[in-house]
Specification:
It is built from 34 helices and 23 strands. It has 821 residues and is an alpha/beta fold.
Length: 821
Amino acid sequence: MNPNGRKGDRTGRSVEAFEKAIIDNLYFNRGQPIYGASINDLYMSLAITVRDHLIRRWQKSVEAYVKEDPKIVYYLSAEYLLGKQLSQNMFYTGTEDLVQKVLVRNNLSLPDFLEQDMEPGLGNGGLGRLAACFLDSLATMDIPCIGYGLRYEYGIFKQAFENGWQVESPDNWLEWGNPWEFPQPDDRVIVQFGGRTAHHLDKNGLFRIAWEPAETVLGEPYHYLVPGYGTETVNVLRLWRARASEGFDFQLFDDGDYNRAVEQKTKSENISKVLYPNDNTQQGKELRLRQQYFFVACSLQDIVKRFLAQHDDWDEFPDKVVMQLNDTHPVIAIPELMRLLLDVYRLDWAQAWNITNRSFAFTSHTLLPEAMEKWPVNLLNYLLPRHLEIIYEINQRFLDEVRVNYPGDEDRIRRMSIIEEGPEKLVRMAHLATVASFSTNGVAKLQSDLLQARVLNDFYTMWPERFNNKTNGVTPRRFMRLANPRLAKLISSKIGWSWISDLDIIEDVEEFAADREFQRTWRQIKRDNKKDLATYIKNHLGIDVNPDSIFDVMVKRLHEYKRQHLKALHIITLYNRIKANPSLEIVPQTFIFGAKAAPGYYMAKLIIKLINSLAEVVNQDPDVDGRLKVVFLPNFNVSMGERIYPAADISEQISLAGKEASGTGNMKFALNGALTVGTLDGANIEIRERVGQENFFLFGLTAEEVFELTAKGYDPMDYYWENPELKAAVEAIASGQFSGGDGELFRPLVDSLLYDDPYLLLVDYDSYVKSQDKAAAAYQNQYWWTRASILNVARCGYFSSDRSMAEYCQDIWGVTALESG
């Protein structure tokens, strides 16, 4: 780069001006001369230069929001999986060509810069990626929105494998700095914990309650710019970092007690240190509750401050503020808002409750009882005594209402109470959210139906008007245009580029589904994407995979209900067939896994070990002769997903029916042309309805059949003895065939299958294997397969997060677009 290049505006659109802006940022932001700059220095300068092109748009958005005073969506989520930012922000600012030209003229490579871009590990899985998609869509649709969450210093752990076992290490994603965030220390807020409450009469003789906390923590905000595509709107994601109010005790330090001198600082800042501490211990539970309260307390202070800057009538609050609770993690915001209104701003209960009830909406992302958060009353009393009092008051008033509606029905009272009675009293956060919110929605039609019919049926019976469904979606900008540029270009050559912000238009591709030349190009793109992934696998794992084999992919969080071990049983079955007949002709298949197990989830880790052990045996067996390959890619994240989705032929969506809320990976695969092998679970049902049942490989029990079977009870051994291939697959695991002869290593997994099988693998096994055989046979007819692949893409426009957000805006939030340009 020429340090004497032309001077120009920081956001000039010529190659010379852009190059000069990079150099200026290198000097003035990094303090580096160009001749001594590292690749990271250059990356940071490039990132800041691209970011500068968002600043003015952001300023216009802020000015428009202040001037027009619209109703604003405040999205409260404990997780955001944003993905890498550089490629997205180049695309959204229209600077891709400028960047490429500047780098080429300076003999620099864009992939080297993209490699420097760190992925914020601010989430665990689909919940966090969904939140990021939603923010992207809201900005693209010109909807005023601020997202709130936690700025975890160490995000979701880095995963590696040692001897096939998952090993976790810190995800130090901030180690080299972060050019995409803006720290705002002047906006720090105070958050308090512990202590006690004191009751008294104020000067007007009114009964008041004061919280006298025992400790204080500071919340410092950092914000990310969230640009929309094809619009001037730039919204904000505001993430909170915990800071100690008193970080250093000089007297203790002077006395030589160095550890205690910084004890308070360490305790305070642990709150935002790491994503989701292991809550198997009391200390872990306490830290997780501290995290949840800290981020909502910071956020609500910020929201209230914004409201009071332009309003003084509290009754206007629900007309200007809507807060979406993304699952149960932020539900403690409900008693926190009540506390602020009652204790700080001195409203009476009726007015405070009316405001609260009209301001919160709740999304439930699960059907699993263990995922419906419940906090011990004793822990809440210790950390948040005032909030526990408010929760009890909410519950008392709510149960009085239930008694009026259902007199004498004490069993209903017990079921609906926010407080679960038992040896340890618990606060049911999903109940609190449902009682205090004006809307409760599920995230796929089946899940919403089951919430209403089963999980929250009592509440639905009482308030049917509060319940609704909003099926999830994903952003086509990241998961098609950026992840699969070859396919995006082909689609756009036929129907134009408008589909990127209006995915319904993609249905026009169906016209070309049977076109031989279009099919040929479509197949070549898929193969090129498979070759790219094969190269990545070879470079990182040393495993050769055949791009002409079926790429059968299962990437998602590892949980027993998602049934990665059912996929393992299928692979073992194919392996057993080959061992029984080494000359067997089968379609070559490459099975690709990616998944992280929660650090404290032993069975999930054992499943990872099984799959890696299976890979070691299968991949090295000369009898297999390359017909089967098993690959487990470590450290699955958004960026790896962007490599994998475009290369997949088969999308594995095999959770037990009635367990998966929705899924979004199923949508990403379908929109990249993979065909689904799946159960009637989550959004699979809606995908199958749209792509056509003939283009979807269905297997397994329905949710109702699952409920009926589990209600009457069943013996897994019946299925074990009845199916020789199933018996042989389980015996192969039990005998130590994949563990060096150690028959005990996988004993817990085998025992779970044979004597419990809570996720009905043995029930669904036969149907699953048959569906896989059908898919493999269908793949041999490349005309049929390619046509089905095209139809999957053409018919999945519904699964855009833009559509999801439009439904939230119209049906729940009551907000409208506000253009800032």
